[in-house]
Amino acid sequence: MLQEVWKVPAIEFPEGLEWLNVSQPLTLRDLRGKVVLLHFWTYGSVASLHILTDLRKLESRYREELLAIGVHSAKFPAERLTENVRKAVLRYEIAHPVVSDPERILWNRYEVQVRPTLILIDLAGNIVERISGERSHGVLDEMIAETARSFERRGQLSRKRLDAIQERNDIHDSIFSFPGKVLAEPDGGRLFVSDSNHNRIVILSLPDGVVQDTAGTATADFKDGSFEEARFNRPQGLALAGDTLYVADTENHAIRMLDLRTRRVGTIAGTGKRALGGHQTGPGTQIRLSSPWDLTLCGGMLYIAMAGTNQIWLLDLETGIASPLIGAGLEARIDGPLGACALAQPSGITTDGARLYFADSETSSLRRADPNPGGRVETLVGNGFLEFGDRDGAGAEVRLQHPSGVSWHDGIIYVADTYNNKIKKLSDFTGESVTYLGTGERGFRDGESPLLDSPEGLSAACGCLYIADTGNHAVRIADLKTGTVKTLEPKVLETAGRAGSPR
Q1: What is the pLDDT of residues 444-457, one digit of tens each?
Q2: β-strand partners of 469
Q3: Nearest to residue 5, comparing CAs of 167, 136, 131?
Q4: Which of 97, 236, 405, 485 could join 458 in a cystine, given CB atoms 3.0 to 4.6 angstroms apart?
C-alpha cells in the first residue's frame, strides 16, 4: 500500500503568474483525478535540465495518469523574464505546462531549498513525495504507478487529457536553431558551428559563409558513422586539431571525433549514459560523462568543461584515458589545488597555450588554472553564487551574470556574459574587465552599437571575434579593431550540406 509521507494538502497556484504551453492558468482544484508532478527548475541549471530526460520517460509511460508541471523559479534577473523562460521551453522542447515564478512565491510556499526539486501530488491533492537532486526516476516511477492504482480502485482516476497549446518558435529565416558554440580556424579558413537544436555541426568557409558540409541531422540520437548517418544530441563545445574536430555532444554525455577528410564520426569518450558522480578514471569509451559543455586543446591534451559534475576533465588523446583533473565535484567557488578546489557548472573553456581559463556559470565568475602537477585554480573576476550583476572593474568587484563562453586571444580573454546579453573583455595582464559589445538590452542589431540575445560561444581568429548569438539563432562577427558587428549570412549551395539542412 502507498504510504503517504506528507499529510498536508498541496499549495494552490497563486493568481497572476504567467503560464506557458496552456491556453489558460491551471489550478490544482481543476486537476483533481490526476497525479501531478511539480518540477522546480531554472533553465540555467544543468541539474534541472537533467531531470527533463527523466520526466519525458515518465510522461510517456503514464500518458493518461500523470501531468508534469514545471515551476520555473528564477535565480538570476534574466530568468525572471517570461520571454526568456519561453525560449528555454522551446530550446529544451518542453511539452508540459510551465508556470513562471519570478519572485519564487511557490518556491517559498513549498519550502524548496535546491534545484531541481520534484513534488508528487496525489489525485486528492495531497503531497505524497518530495525529492531533491537528480536521482529521481526509479523512485517516482514506482510511486506514480502505485498512486494511480490506488485511486483507480476507488474510481477516482481521471484519464482525460489536458489540451496543451505549444509555444511557437520565432526563428527568423535562419539555418541555425539555438547555436551553442563556434570555432574559427586560426587562419580564418573555416568556421564550425554547433547548431545545437538541429543536433548537427555546420562547417562553413570564410569569409564568404558558404556551407561546406554538415554532420548530423535534426533527429537527436547517439550514433557513429558517416556525416549522413551520425546522430548528435544538442552538441556544444568544439576543438580542432588539423582535420580532426572534437565535439562535446552534451546531451549524449559523450565526446565525438569528426574526421573532416573521410567525413566519419566516432566516439572517443562517454557511453551515452549520464554519470551520477565525477570520480572515474579509465578508457574514455568506458567512462560515463555528465553534460560536457565545452572543449579546448592544450599540449596534445583535450580539456573538457564537465558542467554536469562541476569539474574540468582531461582526455589524453594518445592513450584514450579520461579522468577528472580540476574540481572535487562540489558545486561551489573554492580556489586552491586542482583536486581540492570547487567549481560551479563550468560551461566555457579556453587556453593561452599554457593555462586554462573557464567561465564558471553558476558563480558568475571567470577562473584560471595551471593544469600541470601542483597547479592551482584562482578566480580572476566574480565573487560567488549570490554575487552577480553587470559591473566592470577588476577582481572581486566585477559582476557578471551566468557567463558561458570564453576565448583567449592576444592577451585578452573575451567572455560571453550570457544573461547580460554582452561580450566582456578581460586583460590577462592588468586584470581589468570592461564591456566590449552589447548594451545589456536583449535584441538583434548590427553596427557599432550591436544588440545580442544570450550569447554563449566565442572564437577569435584573424582579427575577428565570432559569436554564437544563441537567442537570436545567429552567428555574429565583430571586427576586433573597430568593434563593429555584422551578422553572418550562410550560403547553402546545392552541393553543400550533404548531411541535411533543416530549416
Answers
A1: 999 999 999 999 99
A2: 474
A3: 131
A4: 405
Q: Are 96 and 167 in contact (CB under 8 A)?
A: no
Identify the burial level of 2 via C-beta atoms within 10 angstroms of its C-beta, where 0-12 means exposed, 13-18 middle and 19 or more buried: middle
Q: Where are the domains of the chain?
A: 18-153, 182-487
- CA angle in degrees (0–180, nearest 5) for 138-139-141: 65
* CA–CA distances in Å: residue 168 to residues 20, 223, 426: 11, 29, 38
Q: Are strands 264-269 and 254-259 parallel, antiparallel or unpaired?
A: antiparallel
In this structure, which amino acid lies at residue 280?
Q
Half-sphere exposure of residue 125: CA atoms within 13 angstroms, side-chain side: 11
Kindly state the percentage of the chain with pLDDT values over 70. 96
Q: Which residues of 200-224 are buried (b: 16+ CB within 10 A; e: fewer)?
A: bbbbbbbeebbbbbbbbbeebebee
B/e letters for 61-79, b = 16+ CB within 10 Å, e = fewer, are ebeebbbbbbbbbbbbbbb
Taken as a whole, the chain contains a residue count of 503
**Architecture of the domain defined by 182-487:** 6 Propeller (2.120)
> In 116-209, which ranges are continuous DSSP H helix?
137-153
Of the options 3.30.360.10, 3.40.50.1370, 3.40.30.10, 3.40.640.10, the CATH number for the domain spanning 18-153: 3.40.30.10
How many angstroms separate the CA atoms of 414 and 278, rounded? 28
Q: For residues 369 and 307, give the distance between their C-alpha atoms in angstroms, rounded to a whole number.
A: 16
356, three cell numbers:
586554462
The alpha-carbon radius of gyration of the chain (Å, integer) is 23
Is residue 166 within 8 A of residue 98, CB to CB? The reply is: no
Average pLDDT over residues 227-248: 98
0.70 surpassed by pTM:
yes
SS3 47: helix
